[in-house]
Amino acid sequence: MKVLVVGSGGREHAISWKLAQSKHVTEIYNAPGNPGMANVGENLSLAVDDIEGIKGVCIEKGIDLVVVGPEYPLTLGLVDELTKAGIITFGPTKDASRMESSKAYAKEIMHTAGVPTASYKRFSSEQDALAYVEQEGAPIVVKADGLAAGKGVFVCQTQDEAKEGISQVFSALDSAEVVIEEMLSGVEVSYIVATDGTRVVPLATSHDYKRIFDDDQGPNTGGMGTVSPTPRMNAAQEQEVLSRVIEPVLAELRKRNTPFCGFLYAGLMVGSQGEINVIEFNARLGDPETQVILRRLKSDLFDILYPLASGADDIPQTQWISESAVCVTLASKGYPQSSHKGDVITGIETAEANASCVVFHAGTTLNPSGELVTGGGRVLSVTSLGDTLENARLQTYQACELISFDGCQYRGDIGLG
Ligand code: AMP
Ligand code: GLY
Question: What is the per-residue pLDDT for 14?
Answer without folding.
Answer: 99
